[in-house]
Each structure stands twice: as C-alpha cells, then as structure tokens.
Amino acid sequence: MANDLLAFSVDEPLRRMDEHVNAKTSIGRIPLARKRPGKQVTTTVSRRSTLFTRFALAAISVLVFVWLSVNVVKNDTSRVDDYIRNLVHRTSQPALTEPMKVASYIGEAGNVQFLTLAVVVAFWIQGRRRDGLVLAVTILGAGVLGNVLKLCFHRARPVPYFGLATPATFSFPSEHALMAICFYGVLVHLANSHVQSVRIRAGIWAVAVSMTLVIGFSRIYLGLHYPTDVVAGYAAGAAWVSAITLAERFAPRFLARPST
C-alpha cells in the first residue's frame, strides 16, 4: 500500500507535466495550420486575376480588330491612313531609313519562323519541351491566321516609299505586326515564368515591346502598310496570344504549366 502511494505521488506530477507540455505544443501549432488556407486563398486570387486579364485582353483585341475591319471594308479609314502615312514620310531621315529596313527584314515571316525554330531547339535541349511546343504552336497558328485574314479582306497595298517593290500579298492585316506580337509576347510569357526578379522581368518586357513597336512602325515608315493594317495586326496577334496562354492554362499536363 505504501509503495502504491509512493508510485502515485511520483507519477501524478509527471503526468500532469506531460499534459501541460503537450497542450502548449498543440497551441503553438495552431497558427502554423492557419497560415496554409491564407496562402491558398492568395494563390487562387492571383490565378483568377491572371485569367481575367487574359480574357479581357482577348475580348478587347477582338473588338478592336472587328471595329477596324468594318471601317476598312467601308473605306472609312483612308483619310486617317493617308494623313499618318504622309506625316511619317515627311519626317523621314536617311539615317533612319536603313535601320527601318533592317527592322522590317527581322519581322519577315520566314525570319520569325527561323528564330522560332532556333528557340524551340534550345528549349528542347534544356528539357523545356512544353515551352517549345507552346511557342511553335503560336507562331504556326499566327502564320495561318495572318494569311487567312489577308485573303478574307483583299485590301490592296499602298504605294511603297524609297523605291521599294510592292509585296505580292494583300495589306490587311500586317503579318509583320501580327507575327511580332505573337513571337515576342509568348517569349515574354515563357521567360517570365522562370524569372523571379522584378527588374529582369521589366527588362524582358521592355525589349519585347520595343521590338514589336519598331517592327510595326517600320512597315508604315517604308510605306509597305497602312497604319490601320499594323494596328489590326497587333490586335489579331494579341487575341491569338491570349487564346494560346488561356489554352495552356486549361490544357492537359503535358502542355500546361503552373500559373505564376
């Protein structure tokens, strides 16, 4: 009996101490468990915001293209087109003409496709097969889209400046502008998916936007396109890029990437 009382007097404080420690440990873990839902909510909101932005960009781009195409068919844009063309041509400089020819050459569909092939090969070597597939599908689709739209509208080319030959294809929309925004736009999307630095992301955006705008402006400067052709090319390309990035988001695992 004395032994039992002695054991009870020793074990009972130890048991209470264990319960006290376990209670503190459990309480300390509660905040950690509560942090996870917050992170999930933040990630969900970010993804929904990105999806909304892409849907909005696609919708706005389609509306802009439709508005331009209707006015081009009615020939309501000729006055604005001629005014901008003449204004740009009057301000042309010999020192600027050659760089504009180079920019236009870089934006040729064949050259963009060659650059795409080189980048796709680089992606595959790095093991980024999804990125290569996304870029390839984007550029191939952009080429088909541009040619189909040109055949649909049959808009004649303006008279080029600087003694350049008139291209054999139709004018509306500008395939250079369409291909440029698709190529550089998707490259920005793919590159920024692997970049965390805000400064580097901003630099990538700056280069992509600059190249896209310079290529489009070169077509107006050289007289190879009407301004509305270039804007329509940008609109069609932006809609196509938005569609590709949205499809990538909802595609099967072999194509889709985690949202950033």
Describe the protein in words.
By secondary structure, the chain is mainly α. It has one domain (about 50-250). About 80% of the residues lie in helices and about 0% in strands. It has 8 helices and no strands. It is globular. Mean pLDDT is about 85; it is low at about 5-10, about 25-35 and about 255-260.
Rough outline: globular
Number of helices: 8
How far apart the termini lie comes to: 70 Å
Q: Please outline the major beta sheet.
A: none
Please give the number of β-strands. 0
Number of domains: 1
Note the beta-strand portion: under 5%
Structural class from helices and strands?
mainly alpha
How do the helices and strands follow one another from N- to C-terminus? HHHHHHHH
Contiguous uncertain segments of 5+ residues: 5-10, 23-33, 254-260
Helix content: over 70%
Mean pLDDT: 83
Radius of gyration: 29 Å
Give a short overview.
The chain has 260 residues and is mainly α. It has helices at 2-73, 78-90, 94-106, 109-125, 129-153, 175-192, 198-221, 227-250. Helix content is 79%, strand content 0%.
